[in-house]
């Protein structure tokens, strides 16, 4: 079961949704980086549940414990281990689901591959696993942010309601992380209406990275956009990724879609900051399609471990919309990919000397 990510910067997460703890081991960060535990905690707080009616009611403090690799606030160059304890799991909510496959979840495919029956909360397939990713991403930021690299995310669509403008500052104050102040209320009402009916709603999250230098990424098979897309697709619930103009490019002429240049640089950014799999120095821009949360309390038809048809209603605490919690995770995965690309570039330059 793959739980390791990266080449120069290797990240390994562990733990299950309803186990005693989650954690991550990060190997490859240089020594001497400033590791601010409060900075890590701020990122964890952005992702954690229980903040509003727009997300799961599960109450987790998500306090990060640094177990190794840091001394006096600086990285030692050795593996950094971070731990997040589960303190509000309610496995009893899943007793009636122990022998049935929840529609839209990984229960069926995990059973087919590993012979593992459905686990409380989804086990490793749970969105709870992303807490470890966010902690790791905060470590990656310790390498990138001193270089002037900044990360942003927001919700740009919910249930078909699409933002007409992007205001990252406003999105920090909105429970859905909605990008458009004029449409935030309508988006919120859409989510609450679905929740009231025992349903859920999907949406689109935008991710932007500013300040990444030109020259990161490795063609032909390790392109930066391929690495980013793979990292984002590894987030549960993400079913589509487009970079730059994405699918809109399919309807354009080359003269419309090419990013022309003058003596001052690029005149547009339809490529989303990546050309030939290598960063161009422009902002990296992407959008992630997020499916509706599969855990809903409406009656659904499914099968049990014996192959018999069953009808279930999923109880427990679940997000009516995944978007506000996907954003911080998407930023974290982008940070991990870029930190790895940075270290790969340093290794390449060292070899060429």
From TrEMBL:
GO terms for molecular function: chorismate synthase activity; FMN binding. Reduced FMN (FMNH(2)). Its EC number is 4.2.3.5. InterPro entries: Chorismate_synth (IPR000453), Chorismate_synth_AroC_sf (IPR035904), Chorismate_synthase_CS (IPR020541). It catalyses: 5-O-(1-carboxyvinyl)-3-phosphoshikimate = chorismate + phosphate. NADP(+) binds at residue 47. Pathway: Metabolic intermediate biosynthesis; chorismate biosynthesis; chorismate from D-erythrose 4-phosphate and phosphoenolpyruvate: step 7/7. Keywords: Amino-acid biosynthesis, Aromatic amino acid biosynthesis, FAD, Flavoprotein, FMN, Lyase, NADP. Its cofactor is FMNH2. GO terms for biological process: amino acid biosynthetic process; aromatic amino acid family biosynthetic process; chorismate biosynthetic process. FMN binds at residues 124-126, 276, 291-295, 317. Pfam families: Chorismate_synt. One of its GO terms (cellular component) is cytosol. HAMAP family: Chorismate_synth. Belongs to the chorismate synthase family. This reaction introduces a second double bond into the aromatic ring system. NCBIfam families: aroC, PRK05382.1. Homotetramer. This is Chorismate synthase.
């Amino acid at each position: 079961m793959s739980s390791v990510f990266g080449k120069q910067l290797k990240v390994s997460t562990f733990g299950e949704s309803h186990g005693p703890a989650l954690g991550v081991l990060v190997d490859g960060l240089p020594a001497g980086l400033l590791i601010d535990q409060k900075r890590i905690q701020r990122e964890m707080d952005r992702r954690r549940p229980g903040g509003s009616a727009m997300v799961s009611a599960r109450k987790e403090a998500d306090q990060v414990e640094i177990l190794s690799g840091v001394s006096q606030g600086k990285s030692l160059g050795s593996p950094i281990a971070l731990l997040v304890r589960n303190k509000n799991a309610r496995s009893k909510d899943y007793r009636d689901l122990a022998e049935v496959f929840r529609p839209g979840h990984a229960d069926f495919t995990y059973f087919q591959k590993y012979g593992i029956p459905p686990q409380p909360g989804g086990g490793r397939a749970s969105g709870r696993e992303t807490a470890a990713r966010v902690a790791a991403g905060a470590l990656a930021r310790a390498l990138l942010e001193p270089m002037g690299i900044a990360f942003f995310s927001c919700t740009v669509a919910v249930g078909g309601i699409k933002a007409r403008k992007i205001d990252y500052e406003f999105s920090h104050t909105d429970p859905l992380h909605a990008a458009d102040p004029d449409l935030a209320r309508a988006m919120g009402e859409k989510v609450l209406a679905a929740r009231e009916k025992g349903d859920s709603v999907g949406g689109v999250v935008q991710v932007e990275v500013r300040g990444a230098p030109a020259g990161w990424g490795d063609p032909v098979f390790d392109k930066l956009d391929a690495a980013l897309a793979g990292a984002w697709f590894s987030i549960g619930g993400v079913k589509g990724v487009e970079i730059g103009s994405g699918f809109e490019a399919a309807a354009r002429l080359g003269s419309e879609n090419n990013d022309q240049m003058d003596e001052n640089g690029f005149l547009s950014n339809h490529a989303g900051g990546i050309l030939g799999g290598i960063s161009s120095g422009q902002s990296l821009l992407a959008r992630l399609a997020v499916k509706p949360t599969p855990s809903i309390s409406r009656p659904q038809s499914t099968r049990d471990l014996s192959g018999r048809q069953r009808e279930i209603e999923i109880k427990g605490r679940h997000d009516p919309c995944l978007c506000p919690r996907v954003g911080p995770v998407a930023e974290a995965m982008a940070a991990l990919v870029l930190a790895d690309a940075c270290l790969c570039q340093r290794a390449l330059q060292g070899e060429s000397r």
